[in-house]
Amino acid sequence: MSIEPQSSSEFSNEALCELVKQSIPKHVAIIMDGNGRWAQSQGKPRVIGHKAGVKAVRRAVSTAREMGIGSLTLFAFSSENWRRPDKEVSLLMELFFTVLQRELKLLHKNGVRLNIIGDISRFSERLQKQIASAMAKTEDNTGLVLNVAANYGGRWDIMQAAQTLAEKVESGEMSSSQFTEEALSQHLCMQNQPEVDLMIRTGGDFRISNFVLWQAAYAELVFTDVLWPDFDEQAFKDAVAIFATRQRRFGLTGSQIETLQAEQ
Ligand code: IPE
Ligand code: IPE
Ligand code: MG
Fold first, then answer.
1. Which of 15, 63, 64, 205 is the most buried (most CB within 10 A)?
2. Contact criterion met (CB below 8 Å) for 190 and 73
3. What is the domain-level CATH number for residue 146?
4. Is 81 a catalytic residue?
């Protein structure tokens, strides 16, 4: 059976089969939710939950490395999280700064490439410098790619890519007919990484909250009630096990997928 790609953005049979077959996702994105409720359920201030969340981040990074996942994208601060009380926002910024400083050595030693995605121009000068130097230090690493989404929004990402392309059209560098899906993808965050295969949300809610919208167009979604600070190695492996049981069809029928797999 031949399934002909209709446009450059569609998959070849081989690429499709590869995607359908994988039991370990190449790219996992996690909405790390539930820190505040975790702390409040113990009668503690929300910030204690964020601090406990850092430990869960460390565990998730090490589990991702152990499982051979290529890219891990963690939602740390959304473009909407500025709406929180000033005190919580500044505590989160401070935490982000100290964690970057403290964890960098180990990440680098473990060959992790750190990539901060989001509009960092709203952060303090000090934090922006810290981000730039952390990314520069690890840029040649070839292990896990750790994308940390900070002041990130899926709509912002699509808009900034569209804006760049619009400017190119305006300046005559490209024509409007070259403003394609492919071209837009090339200007999004994480453009050189595989699209998101698995998106996990902890904390019991069933929504995407403006996380990677474009890149997760065909992601498998796994929602868990586990609050982020309790998300451990087993919970991560359970989510990947659920992923492995899903039949990804990418618009095809189930029997087309079975035939394609049998032929490869
Ligand atoms: C996620 O946990 C972390 C951030 C958004 C920074 P929350 O802080 O949203 O925790 P809940 O959802 O209020 O429990
Ligand atoms: C999503 O969690 C953002 C992060 C995990 C950083 P939120 O707690 O901000 O999401 P909503 O507000 O419940 O949708
Ligand atoms: Mg929340």
1. 64
2. yes
3. 3.40.1180.10
4. yes
210 catalytic? Reply is no
Q: How far, in Å, are 52, 93, 128, 170 from residue 156 at the CA level?
A: 29, 20, 18, 20
Residue 176 resides in a domain: no
202 within some domain: yes
29 closest CA partner among 79, 72, 65: 72
Q: What is the pLDDT along the chain (264 residues), one digit of tens a residue?
A: 555 544 445 678 888 888 888 899 999 999 999 999 999 999 999 999 999 999 999 999 999 999 999 999 999 999 999 999 999 999 999 999 999 999 999 999 999 999 999 999 999 999 999 999 999 999 999 999 999 999 999 999 999 999 999 999 999 999 999 999 999 999 999 999 999 999 999 999 999 999 999 999 999 999 999 999 999 999 999 999 999 999 999 999 999 999 988 887
State which of 31, 32, 33, 90 you would mutate to test the pocket of ligand 1, scoring each by most atoms of that ligand within 8 A of its C-beta: 33
Quote the distance between the C-alpha of residue 48 and its chain's center.
24
Domain residues for the domain of 77 are: 22-153+198-241
**Was 34 annotated as part of a binding site?**
yes
User: Structurally, how many domains does the chain consist of?
Assistant: 1
